[in-house]
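Q: I'm writing up a methods section and want to include an example of the input and output format. Could you take the sequence below and give the corresponding predicted structure tokens, formatted cleanly so I can copy it straight into the document?
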Amino acid sequence: MKEEHKKWYSPTLGKDFEMLVYGHYGTPVIIFPSTMGRYFESRDFKLIDSVAHLVDEGKLKIFCVDSIDKYSWYNKKAHPADRVKKHLWYDRFICDEIVNSLRHSYGISKVVVGGASFGGFHAANFAFRHPDMVSHVISMSGSFDIRSFMDGYYDDNVYFNNPVDYLKNNNNPELWKLKIILGYGEWDICKDANLVLSKILHEKGISHWLDEYKWAEHDWPLWRQMFPKYLSSL
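A: Here is the clean output for your methods example:
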């Protein structure tokens, strides 16, 4: 596969940002890393290798973005209000410097987002907050309630980044156009989280694919099975 390493100074984040890009052409797919993961995580854990055939055939171009989790949700030294504010900078960065750049360069209106574990949260949260920018969301073993990171703190910023809360009252018509995949393992630590989100989507009449893998745990071998299956469905 063609691999490109990109690094630039982000005025939104006020720091350098790095990303790996795979492929020469195809539907743009943005992959968020798991908990405090880096942009090279999907390569190192062979997730990219699992879809090499789709990339080489020119069906997909994959953008592995970095995360700032250690400065936001996982930064226990910061006040919870500051943690979520840093995530909002990240959200704005993904909108302005990644997605809008792809929309402009490809001449398209929407992209695909995905991720495993905490990357599944990032993908789903971004898609539900910005359904006008996203066509498909692929969450593998994601969790969708961020309150456990907030030490009891709660404000509007927390609410609007907590899918199990704001999704119930979000009536953006673009939500009903989203193609949503929620994959999890039978023994997955995030199984219940997926069932809860599925129930919310079902109650709103938003169609989605809830996919359980039997005898599977919350780990990379499961996600390497899921990823090519889900991307092939595009």
